[in-house]
Here is the input.
Amino acid sequence: MKRRWRTLLLAATVLAVLAAGGWGALRFVQLSSTAASAEVPTTRVKKGRVTITVAARGELQGGNSEMVIAPQTGGGDIAITYLREPGELVRAGDTVVEFDTTQQEYNLKEAEADLAEAEQQVIIAQATAVFTEEEARYAVLSAAADTKVAELEVRRNPLLAAIAAHENEISLESARSKQRQAEQDANNKKATVSAGIAIQAAAVNKAKVTVDMSQRIIDSMVVKAKTAGYVNVQQTSNQVLCCYAGQQLPNFQVGDSARAGQVVAQIPDLTHWEVSANIPELDRGHLSPGQKVSVRAAALPGRAFAGHIKTLGGTTGSPWNRSFECRVALDETSPELRPGMSTNLTITVESLDQALWVPSQAVFESDGRAFVYLRTPQGFVPHDVTLVRRSESQAVLTGIGDNDLVALSNPDQPNKPASQTGGVMKAVSR
Here is the structure.
C-alpha cells in the first residue's frame, strides 16, 4: 500500500512539472508572436472606387511643325552664319537661318566664267561659219564660171577638128564635175558649221543651267519661315546617339556645321499643340489612342490642359530600359505655351467601382502566383489572391475579404523591405 502511494505521488509530480513546462512554452510563443506582430506594419483591405492612371513627363511641341532644313549643296557640311534665338517669334517671310555661301559663291563665279567663255565660243563659231560659207560659195561660183567657159568652147566644135572638139567635150564634163563637187562641199561645210554652232550653243545652255543652279543653292542657304511661330532650335546630332553615350548635346548655334537635309529648327503650328513623352513598355497595354489626358506645364503652375492620346509609337531602347513614344494632342491651348516646355501627363486608364484594394507593397509575387500575408489567430499566413490591376501605389485584387488585415512587408523578414513589382501607373481611390 505504501509503495502504491509513492508511485502515485511520483506520477503526480511528473505531470505537474510537464504541465508547468508546457504552459511556459506556450506563453513564450505567444509573447514572441505578439512581439513579432508588433514589428510588422499592417493595413486593412479597403473597398471603393479606384481610378487607374499613368503618369509621365513630356515635352511640349507644336503640331504639324514646319521643318527648317539645311539645303542640299552637293558638298559636305555647311556652317551656320546666322540663327534665330530659341523661342524667338518670327512671322512668315522672316529669315530663320543663314548658311555660309563662300564655296557656293566661288562655284557661281566659276560657272559665270564658263558661261562667258561658252558665249565667246559661239561668237567664234558663228564667225567661222560665215567665213566658211563665203569660201564655199566662192568655190561654187568659180566652178560654175569654168563650166560656162567650157560650154562656150563646145559651141565651136563644128568649126574645129575632131580631136579639138573631143578635148572641149572632155573639158566641159570635167568642169561640170568640179561644179557638182563644189556645191556638195558647200552643203557639207554649211552643215558642219551649223553643227559646231549648235554644240557651242548647247555648252552655253549647260553653263546657264550651272549658273542658275548655283544661284538657287545660294538663295536656298537663306531659309525663311513659311508660317508664323516660335523658333524651336534642334540639337546638333541624333538624340539616340548622344543618349547612348550618356551625354546631352547642345542645340545648334552660330558657327556650328549641319549636314544637308538635317533639321536645324522647327516652327510649330501654334494652333495645334502636341506633347511627346517616352513611357515604359510595361504600360503600353494600358494605353490606346483617344484616352483622356490631363497636361500640366511646369512653367504654368496651377493650370491643367485637357488632351487625348493621338498616337503610340514603336518600342525602342535597351532590353533593360524599353520605352515607346506617346504623342498627346491638346484639346485646348493658351498664348503662354511655348515649344520645349516640360509637362506632366496624367492619363486616365480606367475607373473601378466597389473594388478591393491594398497598397501595392502588400502584394507579393512568386512562381507565377500572387499572395498577401493575411493575419489569422495563428499569425500571418500566405493567402493567394487574384491581381486585377497593379499601379505604383495600389493593387486591385479579389479573393480576400473587405477589412481583412494584411502585412505590408514579409513577416519572416521584418527588417527587410518588401519585394514588389512597381510601374509608373498610379491609382487614386475614392
Remarks:
- The CA atoms of residues 164 and 330 lie 113 Å apart.
- The radius of gyration is 49 Å.
- The helical segments are 2-39, 102-155, 162-220, 239-244.
